[in-house]
Amino acid sequence: MNGKEMNEERFYQLKIRLLDIEPEIWRRFVVPADISLDRLHDVIQMVMGWNDTHLYEFTIGKKRYTESPESPKDGLESGRYRLGDLIRQEGRTFLYRYDFDDDWKHELILEDSRFFEPGLICLEGERASPPEDVGGVPEYNEFCKAAKEPQNEEDLELLRWMDGEFDSEYLDIDAINWILARYLRWSRKRLLEWGPIDWAE
Q1: Strand 76-77 vs strand 63-66: parallel, antiparallel, or unpaired?
Q2: Which residues contact 131 (CB under 8 A, 6 or more apart)?
Q3: How far apart are CA 31 and CA 11, in angstroms?
Q4: Which residues have a Cβ under 8 Å from the Cβ of 169 and sit 6 or more positions away?
Q5: Which of 38, 73, 100, 188 has CB 3.0 to 4.6 Å from 78, enough for a Cys bridge?
Q6: DSSP code string of 66-133
Q7: Residue of 17, 19, 40 whose CA lies nearest to 30
Q8: Which helix (H) or strand (E) is 153 found in, with range?
């Protein structure tokens, strides 16, 4: 049995936490070991509550992986690499960076390399992720203060930007898992892949 076949039968339990924010924002979730890094990006977007509107990159060891790099100095193409080929040892950590302007840095750790139950699922977590385009960690901290006790028109404008409310403590695991189930359904393999039709036949 080669390494790829072993990975296809394994599931990884990962924990992700958003760095530089207290109290901590984190999730614990399960993915197939053979998941490609571009699909892992998709899953992270769903479990963390991001909207996938910005660039991202993984840093594993000394190498960077991103979507459609224009040159080798921009990193390696994430869709060409599987997590199980790069991370195998329990306790190993790696980084995920999202939105290079707001600069959200996440740390992931492989907690269990042989999770007992197959699936794509979020097990637990705490707190909501920051809103998209809020500005970064310092701006997010100010935003949370304004959301709890708006003091002026600028604070009220921030709340209107978030449709009137934001609860930094709110997390709906069931909603996350519904999104993951839908993603798994829509991204499943099909009998026919996208491809050209020979209209001359």
Answers
A1: parallel
A2: 140, 143, 161, 162, 166
A3: 6
A4: 127, 128
A5: 38
A6: ESS-SSGGG-EEGGG-BHHHH--STT-EEEEEE-TTTTEEEEEEEEESS-SS-S-EEEEEESPPPPTT
A7: 40
A8: helix 153-161
pLDDT tens-digit profile of 143-188?
A: 888 777 767 776 667 667 666 677 889 999 999 999 999 999 888 8
H or E stretch at 156:
helix 153-161
Six-digit token string for 129: 């992720």
Name 112's Cβ contacts closer than 8 Å, sequence gap at least 6. Answer: 12, 13, 90
What distance in Å separates the CA atoms of residue 87 and residue 61, rounded to the nearest whole number?
A: 10
Query: All domains of the chain, ordered by start, with CATH?
Result: 3-127+171-186 (3.10.290.30), 131-169 (no CATH)
Assigned token pair, 81: 């690499």
Question: Which two three-digit tokens encode residue 84?
Answer: 């199980």
- pTM of the predicted model as reported, rounded to 2 decimal places: 0.87
